[in-house]
Specification:
This protein is mostly helical. It starts with 7 loop residues before the first helix and ends with a helix.
């Protein structure tokens, strides 16, 4: 194959030829820098995502502990409510018993001084 005069390599200056080789080098360098920036951003994002995942897990654990504490508190409150009901029922029973005892005491006739055996003899002048 014979050299052709219209071949573009023959018509270019050495500066143009150097620019063509520098341009791919420059593009490769820019691409490498861009790739490095991309990797750095990806690594930073990965670290942030990992930290966020750890924070979420910590929060989940805290929520589990809080839920357990709340459930225990609910059980305690339920027990306290039951005890308060029992005490109130017991108090109502005691009040009823006290009222009944008071009624019975009121219904018992109070002996007068004259009605007691031997109590009135001294007053009447007839005692021993």
């Amino acid at each position: 194959m014979a050299d052709r005069d219209d071949d573009w390599r023959n018509t270019r200056s050495p500066e143009e030829a150097a620019a063509d080789t520098r341009e791919p080098e420059r593009a490769a360098r820019i691409r490498a820098e861009d790739d490095d920036d991309t990797r750095r951003r990806q690594d930073e994002t990965e670290a942030n995502l990992r930290a966020a995942a750890e924070a979420l897990e910590d929060n989940r654990e805290g929520l589990r502990e809080s839920r357990g504490a709340l459930q225990e508190r609910e059980r305690d409150l339920r027990r306290s409510g039951e005890l308060a009901r029992d005490v109130a029922e017991g108090a109502a029973g005691l009040r009823a018993d006290t009222a009944e005892a008071a009624r019975q005491v009121r219904d018992v006739p109070t002996p007068r001084v004259d009605d007691r055996p031997g109590a009135g003899d001294a007053e009447r002048g007839g005692g021993a």
